[in-house]
Amino acid sequence: MASSSFSEIPTLDLSWADDSSRRPELLAQLRHALVNVGFLYIARHSVPENVVADMINVLPDLFALPNAEKERIALHHSAQFLGYSAEGAETTAGQADRREQVEFATEHPDDWTSEKPEYDRLRGPNQWPDAATLPRIRPVVEAYLDALTALGERFLKLVAEALYLPQDTLLSYLSDQHRLKLVHYPGVEEGDAGSRQGVGPHKDSSGWWTFLLQASPPPIGGLQALNRAGDWIDVPAVPGTFVVNIGQAFEVVTHGVCPATTHRVLAGNDERFSVPFFQGVRRSLTKTEALGSLQEHFQKNFPERILGSSSTESAEGRKIDSPFLRGRYETWGESQLRTKVRSHRDVGERFYGNVYEKYIHDEDK
């Protein structure tokens, strides 16, 4: 299958990692997915079934909360950009997204002081729905975050091995905070004249890797990935799996050997739930470190692929920029803070007044 025209998303059985006779085959499959696709399913991943089931079961109740409770935990109250966002609150590729969502993250105290970098204020506490209204949400979310954090670290060791690196190499880039979105896409009525954009075309810019639970059963779908020929490939829901895809920071560190793949969600007639887990990148990571730390390794082991992904990418994929690599800010943390301030200007103006004008108008200079 040509790397420029994948027509389906590969599925990897992670249990093969524990079988010495199957492990080499798993690593070869993973290497293909990393270099040629950027998207994959993982099955038999060891995340407990009850952790996944509890998350799936809590989603309808979370989004059925009264509007007053959603407002109480609204994202605009949080300096960490955590909490509830209503349908249409976010735009992608210039259009409003038809989804509502609640964002959570690894729980930390609000201990930021002015002596710390401004971007460290992104590390902090969640906003939780009232325990009397939805008592099980916090234990469900925290158990899920713990399980996906462990899965992500285990998976990164396999990725490193597939790329001929020592197993722990990629863990040094990780943050102490990972983010989680609980997402509800309302159904779209037949004949609705509005956009069917659940989420517009994008590459994941907020994490190292993304682990997605498609929480609605088949045939409910809508997720699509863009192959290098410019064709949209369906990524249907497969019970018992996670969809895993590369984030832009990982593409930068691998010098384009492992490309982040453009994807989107189309709203359908049925409502849909999904739960992406964004593996956090260390906020202090600099462009110099990201570009230089593994450059020699990838030049030596993948010389034909260095910086090659952009030249084989579709025209639509090339429209999506990397705010970290091509932006004017040196650290991952500041690049992320700028992106969030520009996406949620009410939060930026309220909590980040000393950098708000700089981030909003920096393209004008």
Automatic annotation (TrEMBL):
| Domain of life where this protein originates | Eukaryota
| Region: Disordered, residue numbers | 104-125
Q: Where in the numbering of this chain does the Fe2OG dioxygenase domain appear?
A: 176-281
Q: Which UniProt keywords apply?
A: Iron, Metal-binding, Oxidoreductase
Q: Mark out the compositionally biased spans (Basic and acidic residues).
A: 104-123
Identify the PANTHER family for this entry.
2-OXOGLUTARATE (2OG) AND FE(II)-DEPENDENT OXYGENASE SUPERFAMILY PROTEIN-RELATED (PTHR47990)
Into which family does the record put it?
Belongs to the iron/ascorbate-dependent oxidoreductase family.
Q: What is this protein called?
A: Fe2OG dioxygenase domain-containing protein
| Native species | Sporothrix eucalyptigena
